[in-house]
Specification:
Nucleotidyltransferase, domain 5, 5-stranded mixed sheet, single chain, 346 residues
Length: 346
Amino acid sequence: MFDFISGLFSKDIGIDLGTAYTVVYVKGKGIAISEPSVVAIQKASKEIIAVGEEAKKMIGKTPQDIEAIKPMKNGVIADFDVTKMMLRYFMSKVHGRRWLFKPRVIVCVPSGITEVERRAVVDATLQAGAREAYLIEEPLAAAIGAGLPIHEPRGNMILDIGGGRTEVAVISLGGIVVRESIKVAGDEMDSAIVEYMSKVHELVIGEQMAENIKKTIGNVDDEMEEVFMEVKGRDLREGVPRVKEINSSEIREVLKPVAQKIVDAVKTVLEQTPAELSADIIDRGIVMTGGTSLLKGLDKMISREVGVPAYLSDDPMYCVALGAGKVLEELDALRRVLLSIKRGEE
């Protein structure tokens, strides 16, 4: 009876708990939250100062008594307590200040994580206030969110490129047949830009500036028209603020080696894919999801390198969360795609 009443009044949610962004889907409503996975806390008291967008603005700008933390690294929990705080904040934002009934929560996790890492996600979700915690692998969630017919006896290839990790998988009959999970994605691209600006231009920049460069002029398309951008940072030699103009061609050469690692992961999966499914993939192509899949020219580079068409899904930023949401909406029919379930205390 309790479960029936809770199901009627709780706002069950799906969470794409990403390294860069956390996206929350609310059952019956759709995407409700999409904010950076960042928490700013008071060091001494551990009190939350800000979460999400406001906390991200504080990175690199906080006084000594405040710390801006990114609790997720490479798609897994790096700081359990801060992740729990962040989950509780987002869940409270959905439910309001007072919770009458705890929600059921589906959390998306990388396919390559360990059992210990999975357990950490479940425990953090339950301690944040969930009634039940389910897990679903990100490639499956992304494929469902992209509208692929994963339950049919046909090969569907998904390439999900986030902030901390890239997931490549071939899916058929509701399960993952071949997979590859690498700790290479948007964050490594940002780090490469930071290193390049320091070595070549002797300009020290922060990760937010590097991300802005990537989004504004970043590309891996040799045919792209050259564009320029002013970058603000600190002079490495003199220690004073300086502005430097850079162009898209030089950033392209910085990003290509990172993009090549993603291409190599796709090749690895294709090499391991059964012949019958390979034929399907040639016909259907590779579906790209995740925020970093939006990098200009990446779809062309993958198509050229592997000889299979690669194209962006309709809503790449939100495909994983939308997939978790669809499972929530059709839980009885899609329950078999879930990894596990753990109930919290009633």
